[in-house]
Records
---
Amino acid sequence: MNGDINYEYRTGIGTDIHRLVEGRPLKLGGVLVPFDKGLLAYSDGDVALHALIDAIIGAAGLGDIGMLFPNSDPQFKDIDSKELVLKVKDYIAGKNWEVVNADITITAEEPKLGPFKMQMKRCIASLLCIDFLNVNVKAKTNEGLGEIGTGLAISAIANVLLRRRLKRTL
């Protein structure tokens, strides 16, 4: 068809898990969540944003979070994961990719995350420059099973859809 714009679409999945420890703030989905423990990590440990980053990088076929932000590089020590999301958004934009939507599930026995899901959605949509309705954040428990269920860790899984403009046909 004349004048049509063709797009390529790809999906990506990312996961992350970190142990809960005392003495660190708990950041999830770019939001500070009041809790007596935080996630142990080289950066701020935001498993939701880390899973999102891995999903984005994976969908674009550009490796993984550890390749772009190695935990051996001092510039990433205790970095706010929101900064990493912005770097990844710019990186994929340079390859003509954009995020269409993101779906993230955070699994934690505690704290209860329901009151923070909308804040996380707003934060993630803002970081990715996409509509609020194109981001979904779910919170689950592990029903008392495993390290997550006993309150020792928090995990997240993210799924994204990317779109890249190919070329205009005449």
---
Amino acid sequence: MKQQERQEGSRQKIFRAAMEEFGQNNYDKVSMENICTKHHISKGMMYHHYSNKDDLFLLCVEDTFRLLQDYVEQGIKSSESAAYTERIQCFFEMREYFFQQHSMQKCIFENAIVHTPKHLEKEIQKLHQPIEKMNKCFLEIVVERMPLRPEVEKQKAMQYLESMEYLLPMVIKSKGFMTQSDLYTMHYKC
């Protein structure tokens, strides 16, 4: 085995260990030492590839966001022929379905978006931008095709739908938890 292949294997082992630790614990409970001890990774190997916990966490966040975006994009494509109300409902429920199937990514996502480490806010926001762009593009297409009451401007409808995505972290932080589909149902029926 070549040195490059061994290094890639080492990086993958560390990445899988980090995914497991961040996927099961809050950001504050994870340490480089715990990852090394629990997953039989030498500290030398760990620090050869990653300088600190934040590097590993951001790598896990980036992977989680990429997987989520791929999943949602597939759902958007498969719902193209549906009515706009079904497409919107499907869009908001896709995340819920994704996290039901990917519990580790759910914990990482919540640590990144809901319980964001203050010192990583800018980096996480930058990693989240492709998802925000995808969301905006989807909502623009749906709102463009949506029949609106005469007094409702398309821009206002867009703002309303976009705000639903941003309400979720606030609701999760509060004492009562609602799913995105609960929010959709509550807002859509009003």
---
Amino acid sequence: MERETARFPTAAGILFGLGLGGFFDGIVLHQILQWHHMVTSAGYPADTVQNLRLNTLLDGLFHAATYVFVVLGLVLLWRSAHRSHLHWSGKLLGGTLLMGFGLFNLVEGIVDHQILGLHHVNETVPRDQWIYWDIGFLLWGAGMLIGGWMLFRAGKRQTAGSS
């Protein structure tokens, strides 16, 4: 078996993780808990029907983008797995999923929460507490990224050992 065809598609797992991170954020934080929407801190608080409509539209576009990440991850995984019989450690997929999820939290937390100020993790608490939720979100993302990287490396060693 050629080494290239047996290689785990790391990008597929990261794309899956990015998509799942986005789904978690959109479904749990935007819809279920209703802590924030896409632009609630950018001058469009969800306190009028017009602002809620805009936020709902932007939340939907956000979900569409995360859906694209998952589809691309599926396509990459299918193309790799469809070629030949493979022996991959499950830690490779789990690690890359965590890496993508953590990467989503870090990028979204830095760009949307801090740089652009579009929204914050929990806008239902007093404003002076928003930063603590934002920092927790970043730490959670960093922890998943680091844990995922460690799991991925262990999976690479395990896969190499089974060849």
